[in-house]
Amino acid sequence: MQEDDTQQKTAGEDPSPRRGGVVHWIGALVRLLLVVVILAGGAGGAIYLLRTKPQAQRQQSAAEAVLVRVQPVETGPHRVVVRAMGTVQPARRVLLAPRVAGQVLDVSDELVPGGRFDANDPVLRIDPEDFRLAVAQQRTEVLRRTAEVERYRSDANQRATDVVRAECAEQIEMGQQAIAQREYELLGKDLGSQDQALVLRQPQLRTVQAATEAARAAEKSARAAAAAAEQSKAAAETALARAELDLSRTTVRAPLNALVVSKSIDVGSMVSTVTQIATLVGTDEYWVELSVPVDELKWLDVPAARGTTGSQARIYYPAAWPDDTSRAGQVLRLAAELEPQGRMARLLVEVPDPLCLDPNNAGKPQMILGAYVRVELRGRGLADVAAVPRSAVRDGDRVWIMTPDDELEIRPVGEKIVRRGENVVYVAGALRDGERLVVSDIGTPVDKLKLRVQAPRPASAPAGSREARP
Description:
Blueprint: H1 2-11, H2 16-51, E1 66-68, E2 70-72, E3 75-90, E4 93-96, E5 102-107, E6 116-117, E7 122-126, H3 129-187, H4 193-199, H5 202-248, E8 251-253, E9 258-263, E10 270-271, E11 278-282, E12 285-292, E13 312-316, E14 327-334, E15 345-352, E16 372-389, E17 398-402, E18 408-412, E19 417-420, E20 424-427, E21 436-438, E22 451-453
Helix pairs in contact: 3-5
């Protein structure tokens, strides 16, 4: 029974494994077909996009021209401007010292660095008592010498009177002698020499002559004594004048309109004639010492002597003054030697009234000693030249011109350059009015290169000009 049951089960089993394999292969085939369909669809879409893509338009030949910036050439007269840097320094510097020695009793409030004095203003006062006593003493000496002169003059006058009397006596005696000579001749007798001398009054004549000579000698001596007394009086008067001068010098005064740079004394200081009181600089004018290349001197007017007019100058000090502010000056002198380092010429520029003390200069900036300033010197004029920016001169001697056919012309101008400035080159005879000068760079410049000028951009509206939207 059991075997029969087993055989029945075996004979009745379903072959399920074979049916599962068929189903598996059918599913794989379906998936493969789906992939093929998808790839075919993607390829078709790609082909469609490639065939329908937009085509770029080819630019016309005008777009191949090089874009440049130009400026019109303008010829005419130009004024050469030489630019240089320099240092402000005083035209006059004074080391102030007293003329007499003594103790300082009083000092002006302006005797401080930065203080200012007009010419003849008192700076300080030295104790004057010793000098007043010296003046009084010398006045007494002058009075004594004056009295002495008067005495000697009176004595000389008296001696002159004695001379007159002696001369009169001599003349009288000579008259008596003439009478005696006539009487002796009338007598007609010969006398001895001794008797004859007595008769002719020769001893009396010699006596009055000797008295005359003595009176004259006495007068001469009196005159000499009077002259010596007058010299002594003059010496006493000179000493009095010196004492009075020393007294006046106890007040030390400013020798010029000056600014105080430094001081070295104060009240109570003992000073002598070698003591430095202060350092003053004149305020009537300052100098600016410039260094300029030697080859720039030919464009400037440099005076050879005072009174001649030099090139005008403008001084700028941007570190302390507004950019549009300057002071006027004038070239004064050319230094005798070049700078030892740079071998540059040194010029002095004179600036009057540097501290603006004149009411006509009110409101202008004051100059500061030691300041490093920029100076523009107005040089000589150039006739009929074109001012070309230095950056537009290529290779040192060529310029680029945009021709009327919008082509590049490389034009040599080296022999026509009359001056090379810091920012501008002046060319004479090589450029014409209205020509277009190329001022921008070109990568590969060649003659006949096509050029075009960029149209100016429209001005944008200033910020804040649009109306506010709600």
